[in-house]
Design a protein that fits this description.
By secondary structure, this protein is of the alpha/beta class. The chain has one domain: TIM Barrel (Alpha-Beta Barrel). β2, α2 and β3 form a beta-alpha-beta unit. α10 runs antiparallel to α11. The longest helix has 13 residues. It is globular, with a radius of gyration of 18 Å.
């Protein structure tokens, strides 16, 4: 059987978990409506209140043990991994014993789940205590050196490439293990933004309650595009955004098999349209959009107390 083309989508922040479960089941029941040999491999993100979380701030009520375990089991039942975004670059040894974060790891410690990392202190702790997880180098590490990327593919199960190199032909050709590279295909941030690292650091401070929620806004105002619609993003960021046609006709042919879709902190409709665009065959998009729309805009996440 031909190797799967894998997609990684955001789904643990509390808004779209149930709709994503519906989508995965719908894909299994209607395979001819979707691109050949694709699957949603992981739901990424973090449960509300996890201080190890990074990339995008995530607050809310703690989930109970039953909700945590039920969420993990429901995804794994469909052969979908949970992928924790534990990429808070400011975590030190003093935060490693956080009870809630450790419980989220314990409940998912079944050999089926994953962790995104970029902080050596936290990564070393997690690898030693939870060796059954797959460990993935996050795009928030902002690694753009080709030699370092190739070295990382030897250490990590996957490496999420910096989106600014999405269309760097020489860089892409120089990657030795393309089957261990994950490409973020629809990032809304501008490739020339000089504040990317600073933004991630501000998010880390917000998660640690050192800054207020909302203080980690993009400072590159002339090119700030995060609130634009999904299709506006193609025109705003042509040097980084990869269309479905290019994904399947170019990047897959080059040997890439792992693709990340944006969505944390974006409007649900942005996520919804990205799934239609990248996953569904063009001739079926209208019908699939109509079929799954009620699920995305009518279901609620399990109640957390």
């Amino acid at each position: 059987m031909e190797e799967f083309i894998n997609f990684y989508v955001p789904g643990l922040d509390g808004r779209v978990f149930n709709p994503l479960i519906y989508l995965v089941e719908y894909m299994k029941q209607n395979p001819t409506k979707f691109r050949d040999n694709i699957r949603i491999k992981s739901f990424y993100g973090a449960f509300p209140g996890t201080i190890w979380n990074g990339g995008r701030a995530n607050f809310g009520k703690y989930f109970t043990k039953d909700v945590l375990e039920g969420t993990i089991q429901e995804a794994n039942r469909l052969d979908v991994s949970l992928r924790y975004t534990y990429t808070n670059s400011l975590i030190t040894k003093s935060e490693l014993d956080d009870y809630y974060c450790n419980k989220t790891m314990e409940f998912a410690d079944n050999g089926k789940n994953e962790v995104l990392v970029n902080n050596p202190v936290l990564e070393n702790y997690l690898r030693q205590r939870y060796p059954n997880f797959k460990y993935i180098l996050s795009t928030t590490a902002c690694v753009r050196d080709l030699d370092k990327i190739n070295e990382a593919t030897e250490k990590y199960d996957l490496v999420v490439m910096d989106f600014r190199d999405n269309k760097n032909e020489d860089f892409l050709k120089g990657i030795v293990h393309k089957d261990k590279i994950e490409i973020l295909v629809d990032e809304t941030c501008h490739k020339d933004c000089p504040y990317r690292k600073k933004h991630y650091e501000d998010v880390a401070r917000i998660q640690l309650l050192e800054l207020g929620d909302g203080e980690a806004k993009c400072m590159f105002e002339p090119h700030y595009t995060r609130n634009n619609s999904f299709y506006e993003n193609f025109g705003n960021n042509p040097d980084t955004v990869i269309t479905a046609d290019d994904l399947y006709n170019k990047y897959v042919d080059m040997g890439f098999r792992h693709f990340k879709l944006l969505g944390r902190n974006n409007e649900t409709y942005f996520q919804f349209e990205s799934y239609i665009h990248y996953l569904v065959k063009p001739e079926w998009r209208e019908q699939v959009r109509n079929d799954i729309f009620p699920a995305f805009f009518g279901l609620e996440f399990p109640n957390a107390r």
